[in-house]
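Re: the 163-residue chain
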Amino acid sequence: MEKKEDVIEKQKDFIAHLKQKTNTFITTIDKSEIETIILSGSVPRGDYFPGKIDGMVDLIVMKKAKSSITAEQLFGENIEPEIPYHCVKSDGTGYAVLFTDFIDLSSFCRKEEPRKFSILESQILYDPNKYYEKELVKINQFAEEEQKRELSNGIGYIDYGHL
């Protein structure tokens, strides 16, 4: 099994190309009802590897407040309805889209750990008003404090065994 660092190095040019294709894709989207688009998952981490059955680029698309637009209206038909994301294909690349309301600190705090991690390791692609960029500062601060608190709780438990 390859080390993550080796995969990242081997995939560097491929990842750069995928990011460029993704940026091109989002320019085709009507963003009048969209607040923010972020790239999440393996592409921003640099370890995306499509394998034999291809793969999908993960996007989180956040609607503007009070918007009633649906993923179908914005992206068209979901080509993989059995996957819990809205999946589309453009220029040969698949996208798995989490279509959601704006993610602020309050909604971030209610998310499960895997979703929190995907948000924290994401890359902003579209945020014209910088609302998400500002919110991300608060989210990162909360996450850092939460991590310290969890580590502290774990250390206390570990020390308990030494009494």
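The mean pLDDT is 90.
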